[in-house]
Amino acid sequence: MSPETLEPIADSAWPARERGRLGGWRLNATDGFSLRINACWPLGEPDRDPEGAIDAVEAFYAARGLPVRFKLTDGATAPADLAERLERRGYASHGETLLMTGQVAGGADAEVVLSADPDPAFEALLVASAKGNAADARERLEALGRIPAPARFARLVLDGRTAALGACAVDGEAVGIFGMRTDPDFRRRGLARRVLDALLAEASSLGARTAYLQVEEANAPAIALYAARGFSTAYRYRYWSRPARD
Length: 246
What we know:
GO terms for molecular function: acyltransferase activity, transferring groups other than amino-acyl groups. Keywords: Transferase. This is GNAT family N-acetyltransferase. About 30% of the residues lie in helices and about 30% in strands. It is an alpha+beta fold. The protein folds into 2 domains: about 100 residues; about 100 residues, Gcn5-related N-acetyltransferase (GNAT) (Aminopeptidase). The strands form 2 sheets. The protein has an 8-stranded mixed beta sheet, sandwiched between helices. A hairpin with a 2-residue loop joins strand 1 and strand 2. The longest helix is centred in the C-terminal third of the chain and has 15 residues.
């Protein structure tokens, strides 16, 4: 799938609490932690001149007490010179991320519990993985709860404990993978791959044919895992923000 096709699907799969539009620019606002749901996605031409649109985006986030952030995607950003416009205003790029795609194929796993909603054990591991940032964990749990149906949540249980988890959102023939986590006590045992395989098998039964996921360029272990599973980089995106002022 091209960025023009896949980016709107990815936006819908990880929904912000508050959403707005400026023509082809999508405004997402939540609590400020998960970058994708706290950024403007300029996926088409705005409904006004670009400089006026940037002004409107800045006003939107300022009114909510959130930092102004743009998510610029290779092959799906309009206008084409938006990065240059932002740079002139003092914005800088950061958080380069790969969007990887792969075939939907996997296998059921007797130790992976699948459900249509995140259960308390799923939530507990996600909260623990936030390393004490309760607000970040709450934002992500609420975003997971907003994933449109059909969604699936997977927990791999070993020795009576939730050792790894993940989630997926199916939209037609596309399925997005989100929330992959492994308990530190169970790492380096191939559990993330087992969760991924179980999610992909379930997504296949729901009609999905192409899987996608986002992974930061700096996360070499995750990239290696997904590459070994047959995923490859389809395109990249970067965030643009202004440095905080003292």
